[in-house]
Amino acid sequence: MVILKIAWRNIWRNKVRSLVVITAIALGLWAGTFASGFYEGMIDQKIEDVINNEYAHFQVHDSLFREELLLMKNIKGHQAIVDALAADDSVKAFTSRTIISGMFASSRKTGALRLLGIDPTSEAAVTGLDQRLIDGAYFEGIKRNPILISKKTAETYGLDLRNKVVVTAQDAEGEIVAASFRVVGIFSSNNGMFDGMNAYVLATDVQRMLSLSDDHYHEIAVMLKENGLAESYAEKYAKRFPEQEVLPWLDLAMGMRYMVEASGTFSFVIVAIILFALLFSIVNTMLMAVMERTREIGMLKAVGLSRGRVFAMIMIETLLLSMVGAPIGMFATYLMIQRTGEVGIDLGEIGETYSDLGFSAVVYPSLDLQTYFSIGIMVLFMALIAALYPALKAVRLNASEAIRKI
Amino acid sequence: MKQLVIETKQLSKTYEGVVPVHAVNEVDLEIENNEFTAIVGPSGSGKTTLLNMIGGLDRPTSGGVKVNGHELSGMNENELIDFRLKHIGFVFQSYNLIPVLTAKENTEFIMLLQKIDKKIRDERVEKLLHEVGLGEKMNSRPAQLSGGQQQRVAVARALASKPDFVLADEPTANLDSHSTANLLDIMARLNQEEGITFVFSTHDQRVIDRARRVITLVDGKIESDERR
Ligand SMILES: Nc1ncnc2c1ncn2[C@@H]1O[C@H](COP(=O)(O)OP(=O)(O)OP(=O)(O)O)[C@@H](O)[C@H]1O
Ligand SMILES: [Mg+2]
């Protein structure tokens, strides 16, 4: 106990120096923890986006469709799958799409675009597409061939509501067919890249345009009642319909599985790097403290402070020094993450770049308590390592030589 | 009752170097309890080296030291530290005290390390600090005390564990004449009234005059040993 008292008071002997270290630790942890929270928030939101706005929990395709994107690689036995999904209690909603690639021409510009032929009602239930409308109406008001384009497409092709576009595509026989569509609404999602490449039309219009049967679908997107079920249910349906490819969102979105798995490591890597840098400043400070106190430590050993106690004294002092700053930094981060997690951080200009990569331009940082706890353990561990060398230095100090300097 | 507290036999310490220095050279010395002994001699004569070996801080090159019948050379580092804690009181020239502890806490410190009961600790600290005339300064930190007061706290601290004897290497070297006289008064009184054995080194003639036994070292050898 007396050792603890001495160690604690020793920290405050050189107030400025200790405060510098404490501040460095607090700031370092604040930066590291907040960066982790920021990144985790970004990933969480990306996951939410990928599930709720893009892929749903899992999708069914013909096993070659995603690779070849051919019109005739449609889902065989579509009705059986749909029946199974409709009877499944864990399925919240599902929707089928007919997908074609074609040339998209406005009066200003011609380019390639993917047309997603959808059923507006079930699509809205699965992806909430109707919620992302920023102008016009959700497939209402235009009877013949309505099309929903993104804000981005509207800008690049110089289109406005009710404007006409011509879509050209190949039908099953390889014949070129064209049809005109009229802009019924404009949407915008968090994913700029997706927006730039896709437009929504009615599945029935696509089927009619290319003379396809009315059960010609390429994709079924399924929303479950819980995120956690995605992988096991994808597997379950893959077994049940072995002819088709059934994949969960983690494997549908490019790089997603890697990103989700790496996100856990990211926090630790960034905090570890910061702690590693802090380690040196702590070692340096404590070495200076030991050097300055050579005579005092020599005296203590001379009068009977055992080596174990000398070691403990320096260890405790280092731990205390490290542990004062850590909670301050982490608590500051906690408050900040709570606050920004609610209001979000608008990345502004830079945000648009992120948006093209499929990240939201407004980030809501979040960090689970488990991570705070782990970071705390890491700090403790770092402090123990930092304490080791100065403490050994103090233990090795020769008492008689030290007091001769008196 | 007379009892041998310190006994050295052919005690030598040689510092190797280009020219080896025989800092202490085959010293035979016996000190009994209740003695009040000054080790004197010119600078470099080996006073500190001798005291450090007696106190178990330095190891002899040859010969041996016995404290109260315990041979120090047989002990390892940890045993020596423990032995010092329990049997020897130290007063150094300066830096005797832990700067972050008060006079009371400094005096108590050694007893805490020995795990002595709080009640006994409190009593003894009270008594010792009063004996060295610092009853009023119990809660002052070293920086708030004069050099003489700090040395008196050091004496109280040295006595706290009831050691077999107190070793003091030039305890008055940094003190003015008034504080020197004051410290010597206290040491002499503790010696006479409580039978505490003191061994101290000094350069100071006024301190030498107060000793009851004066051992003079020259070039690491005892040149004279007079009792008075
Ligand atoms: N670590 C060392 N290495 C080499 N020589 C040393 C060492 N310590 C002491 N000496 C030498 O040993 C001799 C005795 O030194 P010591 O310090 O014991 O003398 P002293 O009588 O205490 O002197 P002073 O009155 O100046 O304190 C001196 O010649 C000194 O230079
Ligand atoms: Mg000396």
CATH architecture of chain B: 3-Layer(aba) Sandwich
Ranges of chain A where pLDDT stays below 50 over 5 or more residues in a row are none
What is the global morphology of chain A?
elongated
Count of separate DSSP helical elements of chain B: 7
Major β-sheet annotation of chain A: 6 strands, mixed, barrel
Features:
heterodimer, A: 406 residues, alpha+beta, 2 domains, six-stranded mixed β-barrel, two-stranded antiparallel sheet, 16 helices, 12 strands, 19% strand, elongated, B: 228 residues, alpha/beta, Rossmann fold, six-stranded mixed β-sheet, four-stranded antiparallel β-sheet, 10 strands, 36% helix, binds adenosine-5'-triphosphate, binds magnesium ion
Q: How is the topology of this model organized?
A:
The complex is a heterodimer of chains A (406) and B (228).
Chain A: H1 2-11, H2 15-55, E1 58-62, H3 65-68, H4 78-87, E2 91-105, E3 110-118, H5 120-127, E4 133-136, E5 146-150, H6 151-157, E6 164-170, E7 176-187, H7 192-197, E8 198-202, H8 203-209, E9 219-224, H9 230-240, E10 244-248, H10 249-252, H11 256-292, H12 294-303, H13 307-343, E11 345-346, H14 348-356, E12 362-363, H15 369-396, H16 399-404
Parallel strand pairs in A: 3-8, 5-7
Antiparallel strand pairs in A: 1-9, 1-10, 2-3, 2-6, 2-9, 4-7, 5-8, 6-7, 11-12
Helix pairs in contact in A: 1-13, 2-11, 2-13, 11-15, 13-15
Chain B: E1 4-15, E2 21-32, E3 36-40, H1 47-54, E4 62-67, E5 70-71, H2 77-87, E6 88-91, H3 103-113, H4 118-131, H5 147-160, E7 165-169, H6 177-194, E8 198-202, H7 205-210, E9 213-218, E10 221-227
Parallel strand pairs in B: 3-8, 3-9, 6-7, 7-8
Antiparallel strand pairs in B: 1-2, 1-4, 4-5, 9-10
Helix pairs in contact in B: 3-4, 3-5, 4-5, 5-6
Bound molecules: adenosine-5'-triphosphate and magnesium ion.
